[in-house]
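Figure 2 data, in text form.
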Amino acid sequence: MQRRDFLKYSAAIGAFSALPLWSKAALAADRPALPIPGILAPDAKNSIRLAVQAGKSTFNGKTATTWGYNGNLLGPALQLTQGEEVTVEINNQLAEETTVHWHGLEVPGDVDGGPQGVIAAGGKRTVKFTPQQRAATCWFHPHQHGKTGHQVAMGLAGLVLIDDPESRALRLPKQWGIDDVPLIIQDKRFAADGQIDYQLDVMSAAVGWFGDTLLCNGAVYPQHANPRGWLRLRLLNGCNARSLNIAASDNRPLYVIGSDGGLLAEPVKVTELPMLMGERFEVLVDTRDGKAFDIVTLPVKQMGMTVAPFDKPQPVVRIQPLIIAASGDMPDKLANVPAIPATDGITERWLQLMMDPMLDMMGMQALMDKYGQQAMAGMNMAGHGSMMGNMDHGKMDHGKMNHGGMNHGQQGFDFHNANKINGKAFDMNTPAFAVEKGKYEKWTISGEGDMMLHPFHIHGTQFRILSENGKSVEAHRQGWKDTVRVEGGRSEVLVRFEHAAAKEQAYMAHCHLLEHEDTGMMLGFTVA
């Protein structure tokens, strides 16, 4: 921290401590303080140590077993620098296998941490890589096949902050946890005893695992006191299956300055910011008026995600500006984002996403049996017409369902392999195709015929979106991305891979609704 900033923020803390007791009480408003992940930078040997461990956390007055990196829940923010090699030593102290995937990092397949990068229970793994990409907010999380959803639900997630000279030169808010604030947003469901209530079953395989409690950095509706001025929020949708629609409770604008892969060319003003699972956005919010407000998520049109309390806006975090002024600014120009190159004559690939109709039918029925019609609020059911005819007043005759010439029946149906890409469920040992390193390719990801939301994520690259779900690309989504929206339409992305990925450590391309990923909607591919 520079000396003048240190003096300024020391003054801010002093001003806060000098507030009268009634003012402090108003500031607290019975809200917990927003937990801020600590910054973990490489040591003198350019090493970072991560322990994957179990712990205890308290939610709504009850104690639950949770998992975290170097702590009870979530993990530190790893500070990396463009062009500087880092060694990460991972110690898995859990009683089961896990992996650590570097989501958004452009690193070789052998250190990417996909489902082949298994760390045994009690085992260790060391990876070494040099981030060459632009400054960005990325994250790390498990990628254990069939168990990714469970391990993330238990609390395993952390941020990765990549720094570069271009971003350092800007006068953006940079004081971590003061005016540069991470918001890891997740929903959870708890059992009566307070434990995290996770199941991978027919319903969650179809619509995903979702909860009724919203957490921000692991806390329920916390509060953050910031210097009055420009506030930088680094947003991560860390939910297993819930898309978000971020806004300010008083409708003040959000200025999007960065997406998954780094800064945009210039700020983009929005009042609502839809976020897919796994996506990150950086936004600036003007708090110079000194008025308190909430960051909220508005109701979304996604199957199951309008179940109460999410049929109404839900608060994420309370923002309470202090009397001291902030020093950060919002530049007119942010970063150099090159024009999209011509796509004539490049290799094209087609990826068709599809859920087995039996899972679609059984999952929807289970959802309605549990939550009623509220679970379908705002949904267009036309896309599920093939199975709606088999529902009689909300009940299904499983015996009449015949798919692929085989009567699955509820007992014999294998939902663990019922989500597919190009007609195939994930096969760990057989990559789907080979990509030539350094060459652009155009990938079309289609959800036509399948009305589920699929946030599609590709490892090993930051790409550019050419069209998204059949529409032109919104301004704040025209920068570098690693996740694209596919929902009943088709999306086109321009990809290029600068690192190798062999068959034994192939890159993944998959739906980032984690229960879809865990039940087959994923493929591996090589790069050479």
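Caption note: The chain has three domains: 39-169, 180-325, 348-377+413-527.
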